[in-house]
Amino acid sequence: MAVIFHLLNSVDHSSVLLLVSCLLLAGIQLLQRYSFSSWKQFFFTRRKNQLPPFISASLPFFGHAFAYGKNPKEFLLNAYRKYGPAFRFTMMGKTFTFLVGPEASREFYYSPNDQLNGEEMNSKITTPILGKDTAYDVPHSVMLEQFRLIRKSGLTRNRMEEYASVIEDEVTQYLEEKWGETGSIDILHTFRELCVRCGPKCLLGTDVTKAVNLDLYHDLISGFHPLVMTIPSFMQSAVFYKRDRANAKIRKIFQEIINKRREEPTREDDTLQRLMESKNKHGQPLTDTELIGIMTALMTLGTEEPSITSTWFGLFLAKHQDVQEQIYQEQMEDASGLDYKVLEKYPALERGLKETLRLRPPAFTFIRKCRKDKDVLDYTLTPGTMTCISIIVNQTLPEIWGEDAEDFKPDRFIDFGNNPRQQASYTPFGAGTHKCLGPNFAMLEMKTIWATILRKYKLELPSERFPVEDRTTLFLIPDDKKVIYKKR
Ligand code: HEM
Q1: Which of 65, 348, 362, 467 is disulfide-compatible with 91, CB 3.0–4.6 A?
Q2: Membrane-spanning regions, if any (predicted)?
Q3: Where do the domains of the chain lie, and which CATH numbers do they carry?
C-alpha cells in the first residue's frame, strides 16, 4: 500500500487522473467481457482446470448474436480453428460454451443427466407443445420410464414389422389422390402431409391420424422456434398464441379418443391401446395427461424430423440426377412389396439418406445445463454453464470428412465402417444419455416412403439455384422448397 501511495505522490495530478481513467476503462471492458454468470463461476466454484477460452465481443449484451445468427456454422468453425475444441462466447447477455469435434462432443453425449442436464433447457421448447407431465417436464428417471413404455408398445421388432406395408399403402393412396403425370410441389408441405398420415398411424392408431389435420399440426409446431428460448415467459402466450391454441385443441381431441376407446367394448391392437394398458415399474398406468403428452410427442417427432430430412433428400436427388438414377435402378432390381426388410435392403437409398442427415441434420444444435463440475479435455465446465454442441459442424469438419466435406456424395458411406473418427463425428440421431428413441422407425418410414415414390416418379429442380438453409427456424429447413415431379 505504502509503495502505491509513494508512487502516486511522485507523479502529478493529471497523470493520476489518466491512470485512474485507464483503470476504470479496463474494469468496464472486463465486466462487459464476462457475463455475471461467468464472474460467479470464476469466484465461487471449485476449478480443477481452467474455463474454456472466451471470445470477446465489442458489443455489450448482444455479444456475438449477429455473427452467430447470420451463419452459425461459419462462426463456430472459425472459432474452432482459432480457439480449439472448447470455447465460450456471449449472446443476448448469456454465455454459451460450445464443444466441437468428436472428443469434446463425446463428453457432452455421455455425461449423466445430473451432470449435463437436458430437461432444464429443452423443456422451454417441448413442454408448451407436448403439455405437462411428459418428456422434459418430468424428472429424468420418469422420462426414461415413459420412453421404455413407448419402446415396448410401439417400437419392438414385432410392431415395426407391420409398419412398412401401412406406410406403402398410405403413400400409394396419397400419390393417386394428389399427384398426376407432372407437377410442381412444395416438397416440405408434401412430406409433412405424408408423414402426418404415416407416422401417427403406425405409432398411435388410425383414429388419431383421422382426427389431426395439417393446419392444426402446423400451428402446434410453430412453437419449435428459437425465440422460445429468449422471450420471457409472461410474453410467450402472446407471441406463440397459435401454438397454445393448437395444444389446447389437440389435448381435447386426444382426450376424446382416449375416452371413446375406454367406452368401446372392442379393442384396437395398436400402439395407443398398448400404451393405455401399460403399467410403469411401480405398477401404475400412465395418467391421461402423460398419455396425451406421449401421443403429441409421437405425432410431432414421428412427423417433423423425417419430413425435413426427406425434404432435403428430395432436393439433393433433384439436383444429383446420377444418384437418383442409381437409387431408381436399385429399386427396379427389387421392386417387391415393402416390409421390415426395407431396413436391411436398398444400400444406395440408405447411403443417400445418411448423407442427407450428415449435411442437413434437422436438429443441428443441442444444449444442456451443467449442474456439477464437468471436465472436458483440458477444461472444467462449472455449474450453470450452458453447454452446446453443433452436429452440423462435427459432420462437416474437413479434417475428418475431407476437402469435399460440403459436397453431397452418398458413396462416402461405403467406407464409413473403416473410419472410427467419422463414426464418432456422425450423430444425426444424437448419442449416449439422450440418444434418439426412433432412428429405426425414422429410417423405416423414410426408406419406405422414398422407395414407393421413386419407383413411380422422377424429381427435378425448377431452376439452377439450390436452396440454402433458412436460419430463422429451430430446425434446419430450406429457404425454397419447390420441386418438379414427372411420372416415369
Ligand atoms: C429423421 C428423424 C429423426 C432425427 C434426425 C432425430 C434426431 C434426434 C436427435 C439428434 C436427438 C438427440 C437430442 C439431444 O441430444 O438433445 C433426438 C432425441 C429424441 N428423439 Fe429423435 N430424431 C428423429 C426421429 C424421431 C422419431 C421418429 C422419434 C419417435 C419415435 C424420435 C424420438 C426422440 C426422443 C423421444 C428423443 C429424446 C431423447 C432424450 O432426450 O433422452 N425421434 N432425436
Answers
A1: 65
A2: none
A3: 37-487 (1.10.630.10)
